[in-house]
């Protein structure tokens, strides 16, 4: 419950700040993907609102971070799958051992039990 409250206390103001930023930066800026050309009024490029550029960069960063996390957790997922397969194999082996008829007691163990 505490996480949920803290999430709301952080998320609502953050969303409000992002909304105010988007409303304040509606003017278009020239986007040029050639770093060797100086930005001028006659330079080829695209006129895009500034907040769209910022949102696109944020989205790209979040997506790239998600891919990186997914990639680094690959070893953990593989080991978890291996352990799940081993767990199922051991459960099946235990069930087979429980269903198997009891073996005859070992004569040496029976003799040792008689001594006690």
The chain-level mean pLDDT equals 84
> End-to-end distance, in Å?
60 Å
Instruction: Give the helix/strand class.
Output: mainly alpha
Helix fraction, binned, reads: 55-70%
Provide the low-confidence segments as ranges.
Answer: none
- Structurally, how many domains make up the residues? 1
Radius of gyration: 33 Å
Verbal overview:
With 116 residues, the chain is mainly alpha-helical. The chain has one domain (2-33, 40-92). The protein is built from 4 helices and 2 strands, in the order H-E-E-H-H-H. Strands 1-2 form a two-stranded antiparallel ribbon. The two termini are 60 Å apart. The model has no long low-confidence stretch (mean pLDDT 84).
Entry summary:
With 116 residues, the chain is mostly helical. It contains four helices and two strands.
What are the key terms here?
single chain, 116 residues, mainly alpha, two-stranded antiparallel sheet, 4 helices, 70% helix, 7% strand, elongated
Chain-wise SSE layout:
Elements: H1 2-24, E1 28-31, E2 46-49, H2 50-72, H3 74-99, H4 107-115
């Amino acid at each position: 419950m505490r996480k949920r409250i803290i999430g709301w206390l952080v998320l609502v103001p953050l969303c409000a700040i992002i909304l105010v930023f988007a409303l304040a930066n509606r003017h278009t800026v020239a986007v040029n993907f050639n770093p060797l050309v100086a930005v001028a009024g006659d330079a080829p490029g695209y006129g895009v609102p500034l907040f769209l550029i910022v949102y696109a960069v944020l989205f790209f960063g979040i997506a790239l971070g998600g891919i990186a996390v997914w990639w680094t957790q690959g070893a953990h997922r593989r080991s978890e799958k291996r352990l799940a397969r081993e767990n199922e194999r051991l459960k099946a082996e235990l069930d087979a051992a429980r269903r198997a008829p009891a073996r005859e007691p070992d004569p040496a163990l029976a003799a040792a039990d008689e001594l006690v």
